[in-house]
Amino acid sequence: MDNSWIRQNVALKEAHAELLTLTATRNQSMRATWLDPVSGRQELVIVEVCQERFPSLTSVLPEVAWDEREIHDVFGYVPEGHPNPRPLLRTPRWPENFRPLRERPDVRPTWQDADPDNPALTVEGNGVTVMKVGPTHAGIIESGHFVFSLMGENVLHLDTHLFQNHRGVESLLESQTVDGVASIVTRICAADTVSHQTNWALAVEALSGYEAEAAVSLGRVVLLESERVLSHLNDLAQIPAGVGFQVAHQQALAMKEDWQRGLQGMYGHRFLFDTVRPGWVAPPDPENLLRLVYALRRAWTPWQHLVEGHHGFNDRMADVGVTTHADVVRFGGQGVVSRAAGKGFDARTLLPLYQDLRPVPVVESGGDVRARFNVRVREVEASLRLIEDAAARLRRETAAGDIPWSPQDGHSGQVAVYTESPHGLNVHDVTMDNGRVVRYHIRAATYRNWPLLAHAVPGNAVADFPLINKSFELCYSCADR
Amino acid sequence: MSHIRHSLQIRHVDAGSCNGCEQELTALTSAAYDFQHVGLDWVASPRHADALLVTGPMSDPMVRPVERVWAAIPSPKWRIAFGDCAAGCGVFQPAYGTHGGLPEADLVIRGCPPEPGAALQQLRDAMRSTTPPQS
Predict the structure, then answer these.
(1) CA-CA distance, A65 to A63, in Å (whole number)?
(2) Among residues of chain A, what percentage have pLDDT more than 70?
């Protein structure tokens, strides 16, 4: 076995690099792409799969535990030495030799006549209760299955069974042309759609050697930040709902609704679907953007005073669902979850897209629900300032996207591109051959953060799970694909 | 749907949606749409429901849970497909992990995702219609 695979990856982790993707191809090879968080330089580490096996990194790099289980499920390559190699996406309903990314499935599989549940990891012993929640839920929420081991009110262990929403997006993207990809990528996740769309545009532009003009980049920044405001408003509405603070919940939902109506007026869609494509961005409307920001601030300031001045609410969030800085680093946590625990990484500081707008990462140290709430509050304010700054610049620029650039036929190559979605570092690893996709791997921030949620919950009362869950607010669809 | 002229209680199940439909379903409960005001509500148990509302293209792991929720709803009952994916015409229809949306829907609310104002109107129209229950 090739030990340099382990040695090189561990060395990069020890040098504080961020793992962009760890993925496989059907040609018996695997690659890990790392990002230097200061210079933005990427490092590629490659290993050949040998007799259907590859050396597992999980025992030394626990953040890739899921990636390796997924590779086993969809390619059939065995992670040798993985401490817990149970299925992740695979269910008892999958046909025995079904490896969806190994051979391209031309027909749908013949599903087995079985229940979809995999065995759960639970705690055994006197007085331990096992509580199963989901996959269907009592409220309006995406589907996920959670198995709690409880001692009285306290959570001893949480086993998450996600991928109930697994559609097979990566397989669907294979052999699509440039035109076919956009409408699919837009709909991977409604909360992070602009980030996914922008990744696809950046991938095609990088493979074509095209550099977007300043007005196009600014138009994309406006959309990315508008999406962050929208997603954070949603989360800031949900956290008070988790403790029964209905006034703050309803007022935040009202701000979100006004924001969505404003975006719909400018871009024709309440979630900004289909607003970014290779070489193109939906034309921004600087005057109305500034008006929308102004209108939001008028509602935002009294709301902010309400939530910040409410001692009961702040006490309720303090020291609940703590994620430590050490865990965030060890598990490669991303986005709000990691910045709330003192890790200052924000991919926007590395993106040429933001040019001289100079976004500054918002960092808190508590790692609890309150820190995650506060990071979102401050990020909304920072995003509003970025939108104002970009809109002011756009007023001076010539109109963007008048003559859209079209990618030329037949470009080939592999590239890892990323943006900072509302949930954190969102990576697309794209391989194209002669204008068609041959491999499309999506690594959203939530995929890294789900295992952290499972670590943050034990030690808390089970009744606090909804609050902790809402403070992470991880989209299932980004992770499940 | 004459039985539900004044009140329609709905159980929601996500079967592979992108969360856009869920966010718009949540918006229906906000002050802007206030759908409880016209007799609509989400219920936590299928036993309390008049209708099953499904979002998403029917991901394979959700096929059986959806069947079980449907079986637990007392008759007369209705199936509502919410959004293009559940309606069987979304972008994920060809994906291997999907089953073509919700079959035999009594009410189909199109859109990607449906706009809450339009969705509320369709729900109210269905409540007023006299179509007999299918199940």
Answers:
(1) 6
(2) 98
